[in-house]
Fold this protein.
Amino acid sequence: MRGWPLNKWHSWDRNEQLGILNGWGVFIGDGFLNVTVVVAGFASKLGAPNWVIGLLPAIAGGGWMLPQLLVAARVRSLPHKLPVYRSAAAIRTLSYLSMALIAAFLAGQPALCLTLFVLAMLVNSLASGVAGLPFLEVVSKTVSTERRPRFFGTRNLYGGLLAFGAGLLVRWILGSGLEFPLNYALIFGLGTAAYTFGYWIFGRLQEPPDPPQQAQGVRAEFRAIPETLRDPYFRAFLTVRLLLAGASMSDPFFTVYALRELHFPPAILGVFVMALTGAAPLSNIVWQRVAERKGSRRIIRYASVFYGLAPLYAAMVGMLGLGKWAYLGVFMLTSVAAQGFSLGHTNHLLNISPPNARSRYIGTLNSLVGAALFTPVLGGLVADRFGYLPVFTISLLLCAAAWWQCGKLRRDA
């Protein structure tokens, strides 16, 4: 490890190094347990209807965000937030392990398997929501504002490369002679190991204490929502996030459309993960530079364009019969957009949040956006009734609206 990588690594302090390693572990886990590709493929193999497949990313995203206002009321007055994160991480690890075991032993009973698997996902998602706000609070205290774009960019860049390796393994496992459901159980088990490492390493950060704050309780947090919404920059950001959350209704159906309508082989799921993760490193380099030069507002606006192009491209590939390799562009577009949103959303929210109300801003936004993230269930109902192309069209229109609304975001955030 001589030269550039080592010099760059030593430029980070211990807390920043642990935060970066946490990101790398989570990225690897995401490669194995990608909800819209691997988990959706597993559910499709079990014969799940589209609304159930749409429920999976809704639980993963919405379940993560919905409890955060309640979490804000609990952690606001705590000088240290890491103990809350560690407790939630233990539950997340156990739920991931449960998902692997359910897949291994209950796939012969599809209805029971899907029910227990979804319940395990729900527990995991709610625990992730409990951990999410303490995570952002700790990052805001241990990484300075001017270093955050490079911090998240480094997490995402090398994490994306590692997740690409996970995609290679997913492709190899699904294309090997290992029979269903043991192939998926192995993939879920590897993801569990990666997540466990990531959670453990973040729990070792040395968190500086917050100044004492009076505990306000859940009712006070809810009563403070109108005051938070009076902030015009918060309202503008909330509007953009709600529109993009609605646009996510297409996400799980890119994979299902490929498997059920275009009749691609199951092993293609690993290639989809590789496309998602392979596009991430290069896009992160670009997004990081945009963040440092133009700010998070510009990132979110550009990413909205890529996000809207994904459903349009998926429909064109299907209608023109361009084949499975051309279809990889769908996941490359969504990956570029996701990396932009990951960097832009986090930085923008932390930058517009007053330090003494950061928990309330984070909790309010995530709880409201969390409800909108259940639109993939609606997308599944639309797909069951009218097909996948109307779902893709709705997502495209919502992305266009989000791009327009980005003009109202705070320009210096």
